[in-house]
Write a structure and sequence with these properties.
Number of domains of chain A: 2
Number of strands of chain A: 14
Radius of gyration of chain B: 26 Å
Mean pLDDT of chain B: 81
Low-confidence stretches of chain A: none
Strand content of chain A: 15-25%
Helix content of chain A: 25-40%
Largest sheet of chain B: 7 strands, mixed
Order of helices and strands of chain B: EEEEEEEEHHHEHHEEEEEEHEHEEEEH
Shape of chain A: globular
Number of strands of chain B: 20
Largest interface: A-B, 12 and 13 residues
CATH class of the largest domain in chain B: Alpha Beta
Number of helices of chain B: 8
Low-confidence stretches of chain B: 82-117, 168-182
Distance between the termini of chain A: 52 Å
Number of domains of chain B: 3
CATH superfamily of the largest domain in chain B: Chloramphenicol acetyltransferase-like domain
CATH topology of the largest domain in chain B: Chloramphenicol Acetyltransferase
Structural class of chain B: alpha+beta
Radius of gyration of chain A: 20 Å
CATH class of the largest domain in chain A: Alpha Beta
Shape of chain B: globular
Distance between the termini of chain B: 45 Å
Strand content of chain B: 25-35%
CATH topology of the largest domain in chain A: Rossmann fold
Oligomer: heterodimer
Helix content of chain B: 25-40%
Mean pLDDT of chain A: 95
Largest sheet of chain A: 7 strands, mixed
Strand order of the largest sheet of chain A: 3-2-4-5-7-6-12
Chain lengths: ~325, ~400
């Protein structure tokens, strides 16, 4: 049994749940808290059955106050626990942004290095499920602005499970953003999956002509784009950022140095977003490698519409990414 | 008004990249001042100015690659009034006398000179870099990128085409045009290839070789060096350079150019000295007026030139002014060099390794330190007879080192 690498097929949702259960089993200091995580099993069913296994002390339903329970999480972390706080969506995290930005991110600094805040906050992000403008934005780029926290964006089942474990080993606050369209996605993962690296981006598909730099659910649009472009003789390299703060500049520049062209695909808005940051860094660090201006495919600058066709139109679309790449690359031949 | 143009820093250069301006509009400049740095396939050069004057306009922004001859800047000749609207701010003249001072007459508003809209060709940064490496002028490349921008592919295509065009009669099947390696050495290799191809295509070379005993010269030098501190010691190569300079005094025809279909003997004696670069390739920058330099000065000049060549800080005049080239492959163990002339020069002198060999002289056999000296010369400019006289003179001067 031991020594052989078995893989299992499961969903992203189940991978998150496996990660949570393993975390609670491995370390008595770890507990999960948030709205509806217990009796309801999580609003995305990521903690289904956990209340039964771990009891109400370690799987705690909280009142509808993000500010309060995130603050409790910070206090518990400072007191020696390893809390996992679940916030239903990134839109609601704005109610807790004072705790996250003014407390979690700064206490180590304000205490002169005396107090770490080993807190993990998970939240859903992104659109695509007709949840409209108050439940479907991609604001992870905002958090990537803040020194003192780490921002993870798992896109694969392996990362959905493994990043949680690595995040819990981090002595400082880590935010994990799970794109809500990914929960039902199926994927392979190692049965004995362990903690994964959270410092590096990963090349998900190699190519010579253009780098598509992305993260989260957009990864799959990028991979589909690469498939479409391959039929036209354009080799697209797809880079999954995996971590938005700190950004893996080395991987980004290595890919741009290889392909000389970069398209950033981001479900966030273009103005002042993480895509702007990535573009700026490419210009700063790889200007002389560029064979075309850096391009971005982002969400339309509107509150996310409810109607399905409008929501689809507002999000980065495969056709847009394909057209953007074709505008930068002239196919060989 | 004078124009400062992209200089040709060698027969093989057709474009250069302006890297940095060392002056700004309004600056006074003198003939010989270094006013810009330019990058070519052979490296970075400090470019000197040829006129006294005041800088008016800098027409080419740094980072731009332009063909040789392109006007880079305009200068007002010394004394000439700077143009209205030039960057020179009018300096208020001190009032001469309060009594005679009167309010200035209203001057008609001078319209600013029509500014030539600088149309910057869209060339991607990466393509620009590649073009510089491959010696392609991006301005001559047809862009196929977004908005007609020149991209890497376009530059590679253009470089490939140029290579194909340079190939002799078109073969029945086009040669496989592998994209040239995109690095600096490749660029330099191409530059050397262009110059040497031209030399062998155009110049009818003749070659002379003779062994020269250096026993007297080296013995004398060893004695001289004992008087010097280690860092001031003179290398044997300096004696060879000086010997060449002296011999050219006797046979000046070898010192000059074949230009515009005629032989142009040069008065200045600027020896191009072939220097191998550590990263590969070579440059033969000039040591100016070698005939006027003493041995110590020549040693210092040579040391300085080698250091600056390897650091990529040569001056433009050093790249263009050589009137003859000397190459010394002795340290590599080669016995004799048969060199290729660097056009438009008409001669190249080569030295091999100094070897101890049996040497008969005055009916006696002895061991002497001997160097093989060779001359490659342009038969359009000189004949073997004159070349032989040069070799004879070279030998004669090297036998009298104290007179060097």
């Amino acid at each position: 049994m031991s020594g052989e690498t078995k893989t299992i097929r499961t969903t992203y949702r189940e991978a998150v749940r496996m990660g949570l259960c393993e975390a609670l089993r491995r370390d008595g200091r770890v507990f999960l808290m948030g709205e509806d995580v217990g009796r309801y099993g999580g609003c995305y069913a990521a903690s289904k059955g956990m209340l039964e296994e771990f009891g109400p002390e370690r799987v705690r339903d909280t009142p509808l106050s993000e500010l309060a329970f995130t603050g409790v999480g910070i206090g518990a972390a400072m007191g020696g626990m390893r809390p996992i706080v679940e916030i239903m969506t990134v839109n609601f995290s704005l109610l807790a942004i004072d705790q996250i930005v003014n407390n979690a991110a700064t206490i180590l600094h304000m205490s002169g290095g005396l107090f770490n805040v080993p807190l993990v906050i998970r939240m859903a992000t992104g659109a695509g499920r007709q949840l409209a403008a108050q439940h479907a934005h991609s604001l992870e780029g905002w958090y990537a602005h803040i020194p003192g926290i780490r921002v993870l964006v798992p896109a694969t089942c392996e990362d959905a499970r493994g990043m949680l474990r690595t995040a819990l080993e981090d002595p400082d606050p880590v935010l994990i953003f799970e794109n809500q369209t990914l929960y039902p996605m199926e994927g392979e993962l190692r049965a004995d999956a362990e903690a994964v690296d959270i410092d590096h981006a990963r090349v998900m598909r190699a190519g010579e002509d253009v780098s598509i730099i992305t993260y989260g659910a957009s990864l799959y649009k990028a991979l589909a784009t690469a498939e479409t472009l391959a039929a036209d003789g354009i080799g697209a390299e797809v880079l999954d950022l995996r971590t938005l703060r700190p950004l893996d500049d080395t991987a980004i520049m290595a890919s741009v140095a290889k392909t000389h062209r970069a398209v950033i695909v981001d479900e966030g808005w273009r103005s002042g977003g993480i895509s702007a940051e990535i573009s700026a860094r490419i210009t700063e660090q790889a200007f002389y490698e560029l064979d075309a201006p850096v391009a971005r495919v982002c969400s339309a600058e509107v509150p996310m519409p409810y109607a399905r066709h409008l929501e689809e139109a507002a999000l980065p679309r495969l056709e847009t990414i394909v057209a953007t790449v074709k505008g930068m690359v002239h196919p060989h031949g | 008004m004078a124009e400062f143009r992209m200089p040709s820093l060698g027969a093989d250069m057709d474009a250069g990249t302006l890297v940095e301006w060392l002056v700004k509009p309004g600056d006074m400049v003198r003939r010989g001042d270094v006013i810009a740095t330019v990058e070519t396939q052979k490296g970075l050069f400090e470019v000197e100015n040829f006129e006294d004057g005041v800088v008016r306009d800098l027409l080419v922004p740094p980072g731009t690659s332009v063909p040789v001859g392109t006007v880079l800047a305009t200068l007002s000749a010394a004394g000439e009034a700077p143009a209205a609207g030039a960057a020179l701010a009018a300096i208020p003249s001190p009032a001469t006398d309060a009594a005679t001072a009167r309010p200035p007459e209203p001057t008609p508003a001078v319209p600013p000179p029509p500014s030539t809209p600088s149309v910057r060709m869209p060339v991607s940064p990466s393509a620009r870099l590649l073009a510089a490496e491959l010696g392609v002028d991006p301005a001559t490349v047809k862009g196929t990128g977004p908005h007609g921008a020149v991209q890497r592919d376009d530059v590679e295509r253009a470089a490939g085409k140029r290579k194909a065009a340079a190939a002799a009669p078109p073969p029945p099947t086009p040669p496989p045009t592998a994209p040239p390696p995109a690095d600096f050495q490749a660029g330099m290799r191409q530059a050397i290839a262009a110059a040497m191809s031209r030399a062998n295509r155009e110049i009818p070379h003749y070659y002379l070789e003779t062994p020269i005993s250096l026993e007297a010269a080296l013995t004398w030098l060893e004695g001289e060096n004992l008087k010097r501190s280690i860092k001031d010691r003179i290398l044997p190569a300096v004696l060879l350079l000086k010997g060449v300079a002296r011999a050219l005094g006797d046979v000046p025809e070898l010192n000059g150019y074949w230009l515009d279909g005629r032989h142009q003997v040069q008065e200045a004696l600027n020896l191009g000295f072939a220097i191998t670069l550590r990263q590969g390739g070579l440059i033969a920058p000039a040591i100016h007026n070698v005939d006027l330099l003493g041995l110590d000065d020549l040693m210092a000049a040579m040391r300085d030139l080698i250091a600056r060549t390897r650091a990529g800080r040569l001056r433009s005049s050093e790249m263009t002014d050589a009137t003859i080239t000397v190459t010394n492959l002795g340290d590599l163990g080669v016995r004799t060099v048969f060199g290729v002339i660097y056009p438009p020069q008409v001669a190249l002198v080569g030295f091999g390794r100094v070897m101890e060999i049996p040497w008969a002289e005055n009916g006696m056999l002895g061991v002497r330190r001997v160097v093989s000296a060779s001359l490659s010369a342009d038969h359009r400019a000189t004949d073997g007879h004159r070349g032989s006289q040069f070799m004879e003179a070279l030998n004669r001067h090297l036998q009298a080192p104290e007179a060097l």
